[in-house]
Every structure is written in structure tokens, then in C-alpha cells.
Amino acid sequence: MKAFITLVKLYLNSIFRFSVMRYSNDGRERRNAVMGVVAIVIIIVVYGGMSGMTSYRMISAGVDPAIPFLMIATLASLFALAMAFAQGSATLSAFADFDTLMGMPIPITLIVLARFLALYSVEALYCAAYLLPCGVIYAILCAPVWWFYPVFLIMLLLLPVVPVVIGSGADLLLSAAFAKSKYKKGITSTIKMILLMGFIIFAYMLPQLSNSFLNAPEKTAAITSRLYPPAQWFAKGATGSFPLALLFIAGSAALCVLFVLILNRTFLPLHDRLSAGYHVKNYKLGMLRSSGALKALFTIERKRFFNSTAWVINTIIGSILIIVIGVAGAALSGTLSAFFRVASVSGYTAAMITGILIFCATISPTTSCAISMEGKEIWIAKTLPVRAKLWLSAKLLMNLVLVGPSLLIAITLLAVFYRGILTAADILGIVLMPIASLLFTTVFGLYVNAKMPRLDWNTDTEVVKQSGSVLIVLLAGIGQVAISVLPALLTGIRWLTPAIAAVLLCAAAAIYLYLMKNAEQIRRNL
Amino acid sequence: MLEIRNLVKSYGNGPRAVDGLSLTVEAGDIYGFIGHNGAGKTTTLKCISGILPFEEGEILIDGIDIKKDPMAAKRIMRYIPDNPDLYTFLTGTGYLNFLCDIYGIDEATRHERIQKYAQLFEIESKLGDLVSSYSHGMCQKLALIGALVQQPKLLMLDEPFVGLDPKAAHTLKGIMHEMVEQGSAIFFSTHVLEVAEKLCNKIAIIKNGKLIKAGLMDEVRGDNSLEELFLELTDE
Question: How near does any CA of chain A get to the CA of B101, in Å?
Fold first, then answer.
């Protein structure tokens, strides 16, 4: 048991970096670790606030209290499922310490359970952030029976179990199935991308579900329950049905035990399969094509990016969504333009287009973790005879190449197809603002990562999903949507958007100049 | 080829990892750098290669100050750490081609040199595989080939023989001799004193960040074996 607790502490320490915060002599490293935790706390507060407000709005409007529980539990579970699917295999089968642990007198069950708990605990944190405010609002407004409090807390703890088991199990199966393929990264990334796009489309529909929850709650609740029954058990259990609460608790616990038992039996063969690489037979060295230093550095960035499934999924979704929005918006322009005119909301069209494009373009730039992703290989970049400016430029270029073309296509399509209901200022805003946002986010991401690098990671998900710089840039992206759209909407002065774009471009230029001027120092201090 | 003057390096508020170290490596030298664990060998090598900044002192590579003109200095030297973490997402060929692009080596030359060293280290058939599938020794060989194809004037190696099979170690020793005959210099750290004794013409011993003995192997060693001298000096 002591070994198990030690392992769990070890894995949690690796995620949240408690030891670095406590013991590191390097002030900068300690500050970065603290900032990482602060960013997680901010995200939890934002999620919790949104969940609390939605719950309050619905319960105080007289809606059945089970419905906000159902809605938020479904959303939280889908979020946990997506995260576990994206990083489950990497966390459960990260074999950096495999040899060390296997050489110790620790049962495999404990190792498996500790890894599962490490994966589960992060999702549990986010699920609690979603559901706890909902529970508090319910407790205040509905004064539930006494057993609500302990049962709700137990169910809250168990909520991510089912999605984490399904998500990480599916990820492990997928990784194992293509482990020996030359294109395993490409295949698994593409499959994950398609499935996660489905998840995003569903999440996009949730606000509409929220409205229909208010209009026809029973009908919509029935549809959602069929989609994910455990959320229904959770919601009913939290609001008075003790048998359903027990069913949820027992079902989650049983699934967890079953998963750990299966993993326990398959852990060693799984390790064998996942660690088997693709080997070329009868390889002969051919002529090698030469290129310039920037192209060579960019190639490294490109290959590193596409080698990390977590990174690809985190970033490329924005790019795909931009294209989808551009093409769908153009295809439906006749219908939507007519709707905007009839509904007298044509004034909001530019704000909506700009806001959506900015959100997709800034949600997760590659630059926010591009330096951290160098990891232990950083010594190569530090010893190469290339200017640090060039090294940083390759990282900036990667994000621009990834998002820029799709953004330009979408901007052109939307500006052309909606020109009938847009003013000149609107069109200028639609063109300038997303471009300015992309440029700003690209350089800002690199700036934040240069200030908060994390090179001592074991799995790329620690950097891509949990590092402070990524979370800060994510929040900054949401902030950019508000800053760029709200002033024009609130004042009605449409030229404000292009003016803000100009300010953002200046800010981007200033950060770019700072990065280029201090490039050598940034690289030297890593 | 390499001149270190009064090098001082500390980590944060900790004690000095390297404390006033001065050393000269000349062209044609195979210079061994020995010391106990944590003595400051790797820190010194990392300072020379431009990986770590340092507070005081000067490091000149062929007369070029690493602080003032790091690009020019890095163009003529190569460093390989004791546990080289290479780009695991590239194939062996991809990694070597990347280095050749950075160093501006033309296509015919890079092909010829890669083939030569890959054959010497018996890794040619594995160059098409991803680095992630390589063993520690294969990574070490690939890192060595990556350094050798640049034909650096100064080659710095941190524990180069760890992980290499006996044949590869023998090959490396041969290449080291060949390089210094052509006017390069080699500066390397090792714990294998027998190797240092046979291979190096000069030796430096570092203890707690301070250089305690340096010079020609025969003069430093005197009538003792290197092992006896090392134990005597580091026990004091």
C-alpha cells in the first residue's frame, strides 16, 4: 500500500510539479511551476462560473433541478472522454520508468492502478469544477435531503471514471492496433481527429440543447439520457433517487475495477507491442537532398508537431474548424443572410464572423508549447551554429503555415458571400481582425512559452495539455475574442474593430521585435 | 584550439560548480578530463559548447570567444553529451541530413561522409529506422556520426565510450587518432582511466569545480599509474 501511495504521489508530482515549487533553487523554474497551477485554477474558476450561472438560471426559472445536473454532467463526461482519448495511452503506457518499476518488488496491479489514478485525478478536478457549483446552487435553492451531501460528493468523485475508462481504453486499443505501422502516428492522429470533431460538433450543439431544455425540458432530457445514460443516473441520483445514485456509484466502481484488472493482465504484452517500432528492411543510403537552415529547422518543427498526437489534436482542430466555418458559411450564405435581415441582426453578423474566426485561430497556437516540446533534445538547438532568431522563426512559421491558409480562405469566402449585408468597416474588420489575432497569438504564444518553458517532461501531454504557458495563451485567446468584438457591438461604432486590429498588429510587432532582439538570451537561458 | 581562462559557473544560489578553471587544448591534442561524480566536468563541457551561460571567465575556440561570437565558435566545434537525446521523431538519415543542412555540407560530401562513418560504426542498415527505436549505443553512434560528418576542429565528448560495444569503441579511438593527425583537437571526459591513460597525450583532473592537475600525460602521471594519481589527488 505504501508503494502504491508513493507511486500515486510520484505521478501527481510529475503533473502538478509540487516538488519543483517546493525544492527548486531556480527561482524561474519555481515561478513557472506556480504559474502552471495558477492557470489551472483560473480555468477551473471560469468553468465553475459558467456552470454555476447556467444552473442558477435554469433552477430559478423553475426547470426540474435534475436537468442542469444532466446537462453539465453530460458535458463534463464528454470533456473527460475527449481528454482521456487524447492522452490515455500516453499516460497509462508511458514507459520512461518501466524498467525501473519492473525491477522493483511492486505488483503490476499497483503500477497500473497508480497510473490510472494519475490520469483520472486531472479529469476529476475539471469535472468537480463543472459540477460542484451546480451542486451548491441546488443545495441553496432546493434544500435537499441530508444524504444528498455525502452521495453527491461520492458521485462527483466517480463521475469521470466511466469516460476515462472508455477514452483511455479506446486510445490504448488504437495505439496497439497500429503500433507496428510505419504511419502509426498519422493514422491514430487522423482517427482521433475525426472522433474529436464529432465531439466538438456535439458540444457546439449543447447551447442549443440548453435553450431547448428551457422550452421542452423533458423531451430534450430524454434525448440526452439516451446519449449517455450514466449522466441521467447521476442527475436523478443527485436530485432524490437513491437507487439511481447507488446504480451510478456501483456501476462506476465496477467498471474501474474491471478496467484495472484487464490492464493488469495485458500490461506486459501491451508494453511489448507499443514499444515495437517499424523497421526498414535492407535499407540503403541514397542521395540526400540539401536545404537551407530555416527550411531544415522548419522541417524539424513540422515533424515534431505531427509526431505528437496530443499536439496535433490540440492545434489542428482550430484550423479545420476555420475551413468548415468558411465553406459552410459560404454555402449557406443565402439562407443565413436572409435570416439576418429578417431578424434585424445584420449588425451582429460581422461580430459573429470575426469572433468565431478569432476563437478558432487563437484557441491553441503551436507556439505556446513549441519551446517546451524541445524537451531533453534542447541541447541540439543550443549547440547548432544557427542564430536563435532563425530557430524561433521556424517555430513562428509553423503556426502561421498551419492556421494562416485556412484563415485566409475562410476570410475571403465569408467577406465575399456576406458583402451584401456588411458595411465597408465590417469587411475591413473581418479581414484585419482575425489576421491580426493570428499574428498576435503566434508571437504571444512563443513569448509566454519563452518565459515559462517546461523541458523536463515525461509525456508530451504534460506540456500540450497541462503546462502553464498553454493555459495562459488559451485564456488570452478567449480574451482576444471579447476585446476584438465587444467594443464595436456595445458602441455601434463599426470602425472600432479595424482600429483594434491595428492596435493588435502593433502589439504583435512589438512582441516579435522583442523576441528577435532577445532570441540569443532566450535560447541561452533554457 | 581551446582556451579556457578563469571559468566560473554556479547554478542558482548554489556553490560554484566550476571555480576559476583555466585550461588550454592545442590542435593535435587528445585531452582527457577526469574527476569524480559532480566534480564539474559536464558543466565545463556545456559551458564550452555554449549550452550553459557562465558568470566569469573567457572561453576561446580557435581564438573565437564563445560569448561574443557563438555562431562562429559553434561552426568549428561539436559536442556530444553523455546521454545524447536525439530527435526521436526522425529517422537516423533524417537526423544526419538535418545536421548537414545546418552546417551547409553539400549533397555529395554528406553522402560520402555519412556512408563512411555509418559503415565504420556498422549502423548503415539502421539509418532508415526512427531514432525512437534505437538503443542507447545506437543513439551514441548516431550522435558521433552527426558530429564527425561536420569534421569539427574541436570535438568535445562527454563519456563517449559508455554504451558503445567494444568494436565501436575501438573504431572511435581510431577515428580520434585520425582526426588529431589532421589537425583537430579532442577534449573528452571519462571515468575509464585505463582508456584515458592509453589514448590521451594530455590530461586534466578536476575536483569540486577546481582544476587540481593538468598537462602532458607523462608529466602529470610521473611514475604512478593514472589511477593511483587520481585516487591520491581526489582523496586529499
Answer: 6
